[in-house]
């Protein structure tokens, strides 16, 4: 089921993990062990690896796999064919949590009686999502800043400065577009941000 190309009619396809990155190597390890046919071995934490990173890489890969699989059957999973998100004939009803229940309740649905395609594609984000996203993005900015300030010589030796600059520029334009990082937080790279931004004016 692990595949390099993912497509979906419901979700936007996710970019693959960058080749050569540590996460990529973890994913390749997972693929290799999956190929052995021993799924118990495939899910085990590789020796010397961080548990959180292993969980994160696999969670993203599972999302991509489910995304791909569900994308192949979306035309068959409609409100008419699957009026309730359940599994099997017995009443095993799943809801999307309190936020989903209140959202779907406003559409005339009660808790647990959510059509499957709504469950898959329509569960609202949690109320604190933007706050969590801002924290994650602020921390990602700090990684960029660390790379630029402490490791740019290595980046140049590896001839990756164009990739880094493009990635950072995309990141900065995104966070600026939606005001996701306070300007004061951007101070360590303000000169670079202005330089990158001026090229697009």
From TrEMBL:
Positions annotated to bind Zn(2+): 77, 82, 146, 151
Example GO molecular function: kinase activity
Swiss-Prot/TrEMBL keywords: Kinase, Metal-binding, Transferase, Zinc
Pfam family, one: Mob1_phocein
InterPro entries given in the database record: MOB_kinase_act_fam, MOB_kinase_act_sf
Keyword Zinc: yes
Protein name listed in UniProt: MOB kinase activator 1A
Native source species: Cuculus canorus (Common cuckoo)
């Amino acid at each position: 089921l692990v595949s390099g190309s993912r497509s979906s009619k419901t979700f936007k396809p996710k970019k693959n993990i960058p080749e050569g990155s540590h996460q990529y190597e973890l994913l390749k390890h997972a693929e290799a062990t999956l190929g052995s046919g021993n799924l118990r071995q495939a899910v085990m934490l590789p020796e010397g690896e961080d548990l959180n990173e292993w969980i994160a890489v696999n969670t993203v890969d599972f999302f991509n796999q489910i995304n791909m699989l569900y994308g192949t059957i979306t035309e068959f999973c409609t409100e008419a064919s699957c009026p309730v998100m359940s599994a099997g004939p017995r009443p095993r009803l799943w809801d999307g949590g309190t936020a989903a229940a209140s959202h779907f309740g406003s559409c005339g649905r009660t808790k647990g009686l959510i059509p499957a395609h709504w469950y898959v594609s329509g569960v609202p984000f949690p109320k604190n999502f933007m706050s969590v996203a801002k924290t994650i993005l602020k921390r990602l900015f700090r990684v960029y800043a660390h790379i630029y300030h402490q490791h740019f010589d290595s980046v140049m030796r590896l001839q990756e400065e164009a990739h880094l600059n493009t990635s950072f520029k995309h990141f900065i334009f995104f966070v600026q577009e939606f005001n996701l990082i306070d300007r004061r937080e951007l101070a360590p790279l303000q000169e670079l941000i202005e330089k990158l931004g001026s090229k697009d004016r």
